[in-house]
Specification:
2 copies of one chain form a homodimer.
Chain A: E1 9-14, E2 26-31, E3 38-42, H1 50-59, E4 66-70, H2 79-97, E5 104-108, H3 118-131, H4 137-143, E6 152-157, E7 162-168, E8 181-186, H5 192-205, E9 221-226, H6 236-256, E10 264-272, H7 275-286, H8 289-296, H9 302-309, E11 322-325, E12 328-332, E13 335-336, E14 349-355, E15 361-368, H10 372-379
Parallel strand pairs in A: 4-5, 8-9, 10-14
Antiparallel strand pairs in A: 1-2, 2-4, 3-9, 6-7, 7-8, 10-15, 11-12, 11-14, 12-13
């Protein structure tokens, strides 16, 4: 399961003592090949954590032997010393698995602005290296959790090969890309250039359309590693579909476990002049605190939808906007439509359909409701 | 007090029965001249309520005899019928004060997407017209409240003339401009063109820099009426200063009374390459739900400040960012600065200073914390 479902990968998850409570906090994923092709996408935030800066450099070579991930600290905004910590972590992994640090990606997640406890972390790398196994995927997925209440894993079987993945992320979930760490593996034989194209397309359709709280992280990283251990050179269209399925599955798990969320809201924009317009409108609606509160209160408050649509520069006429919530078109032509009492707001899944009446393009953005539990979870001292 | 502090103005506030609870819900402000010069600024939301569309037309003439305002319903997204309701309201005011509907502005606030109860509203206009008085400013300010817990009024005395004002607004408070209704009056002798210039400058520095929940309303309206009853032609620089002071005073009252807020947060951006950059960074930080939760929890979480700064395209280098909270520079050079335990987070007022180290420009954006009370207030069925 998880990142060890495909052939050629071993993983481990250990409690290194980075977190105070004794939970697992360090994961190691190793690609035993024969290929080491890899690609990555990273946060669009201009304030990037040290491990992001490091891993971007490493990925420039298109090859990864290993990924080391820690929870319990983001190693962001830690200056040159923080970058040295990341470098030292990669060197430690290289030493433990007898390989080059130049093919070791590093991912960190947790509080911004504090140095990592390096003694614990480096000992943890040694411990993880001794525990690497073909069964280690679940422990690795567990070790990268922060406020995640459950581990997020996925795998899909394709024509002679597999795609597996793990992810973490519960807060600071916003586009470009959604705040998170994610490692996806495959035993297909795919070049790093092909992996790059596939990963960018897959994440654009999945993680990039997730926005639970409008806050973009400093540490977002999604990595895709191919071992070629199956010996299969896949049809690229099928491979892209499988990777997209794994990303979508993990994105859904992130959404459902978002901090404090009680509703999973799909904002489906149709009738747009362009896909870009549809995404723009979806994002704007996904970021309306007032709407997210209303959905929490099971109030089909379409006025708040229109107020959010109206803040965008997408092509539309206000008097041609239609809005349905859970299939009931309660706003037609920019004004009152069907009886709002017909909308069943009780299910966890809520679909808001916005028809811009401006063209043939569509996009769906996923978000959650805004709850008192979100506030409580993020008001506690330094989470 | 309020809009009747300057000479030449009468006002009233009555309970017309638009709200169900019997509270005041209709206000009328009349300018008895001799001048009727006026200017207005309106929401930048492309989905505009009927009264906004009407009042924009009326203001094209640069003259206002009266303003009628109701709470209990926004008359937004109500189609052609909603616009007819606004028109009928202006006609009713014109009939009651024996003047032209073409110089009557209309403002509405409340739930989007429902028609107003016109029988009650039109009877209320008659009642308000009979109660117009030089003492009516407080009742008028009371009548426009929605979730506002207190009336918001202000007045400033200048060299031979006065500037007075009232405002409402507690939720959906976001720039361009902050969601709100506001009427400002003066007995100075100022042309409508001059009023327009002064009002745009004053609101750009005050209401436009208020962002409590990132949600832009369909009904924002700020009107400035001059009666010239003092006979004084003011120095325009002094007049602009007085109008700005009244706007700033009212903006502060809106901030302090924002839904659920326990903290008033000033985000002071310094060292910016341009004022536009400073505002952009201030707004981005003001919209970080995670930061707003942290401040609620009295956690000086500067990492969330940097994460929000990093999402903008303002000129800055991540490793030259400095951040102070309540005067303690807890982030220097994009990394850990002074001891965060020195920050006193207990006062209601919290100042976050962000030094972009990129130039001489500054701007301050005002916001509030995000609280469970905000969620509760906006989750209740259709507020």
């Amino acid at each position: 399961m998880s990142v060890t479902a495909p052939l050629g990968f071993r993983a481990a998850g250990v409690a290194a003592g980075i977190k105070s409570g004794g939970a697992r906090d360090l994961a190691l994923v190793v690609n035993d090949g024969p290929s080491r092709a890899a690609a990555g996408v990273f946060t669009a935030n201009r304030v990037k954590a040290a491990p992001v800066l490091w891993s971007q450099q490493v990925l420039a070579g298109g090859r990864l032997r290993a990924v080391v991930l820690n929870s319990g600290g983001a190693n962001a905004c830690t200056g040159p010393e923080g970058f040295q910590d990341t470098h030292a972590t990669a060197e430690k992994v290289a030493e433990a698995i007898e390989d080059s640090a130049g093919e070791v990606a590093v991912c960190s997640t947790g509080l911004i602005g504090e140095r990592l406890p390096m003694d614990e972390l480096l000992s943890g790398v040694d411990a993880a290296a001794t525990q690497l196994s073909r069964d280690g995927g679940l422990a690795a997925a567990d070790a990268i959790r922060t406020t995640d209440t459950v581990s997020k894993i996925s795998f899909k079987r394709a024509n002679g090969y597999m795609v597996g993945g793990m992810a973490k992320g519960a807060g600071m979930l916003a586009p470009a890309l959604a705040t998170m760490l994610c490692v996806i593996t495959t035993d297909a034989d795919v070049t790093s250039d092909e992996l790059d194209v596939v990963l960018r397309k897959a994440t654009a359709q999945t993680f990039d359309r997730l926005d639970t709280d409008g806050c973009m992280s400093t540490n977002d990283t999604v990595l895709l590693l191919a071992s070629a251990a199956s010996g299969v050179k896949p049809d690229l269209a099928e491979f892209e579909q499988k990777v997209t399925e794994v990303c979508a599955d993990l994105a859904r798990q992130l959404l459902v476990d978002a901090e404090g969320a009680t509703k999973a809201i799909a904002i489906e924009v149709v009738g747009a002049d362009s896909e870009q317009d549809a995404v723009k409108v979806g994002r704007s609606v996904a970021r309306s605190n007032l709407l997210k509160c209303a959905i929490h209160g099971e109030d089909p408050n379409w006025g708040r939808v229109l107020a959010a649509v109206g803040t965008t520069d997408a092509v539309f006429e206000p008097d041609r906007l239609n809005v349905a919530i859970n299939g009931i078109w309660i706003c037609r032509g920019g004004a009152v439509g069907d009886d709002r009492s017909k909308v069943d707001m009780r299910p966890r899944d809520v679909t808001i359909t916005i028809d811009l009446s401006a063209g043939p393009h569509t996009a769906t953005v996923h978000t959650t409701d805004l709850t008192a539990d979100y506030v409580h979870e993020n008001s506690a001292y330094s989470s």
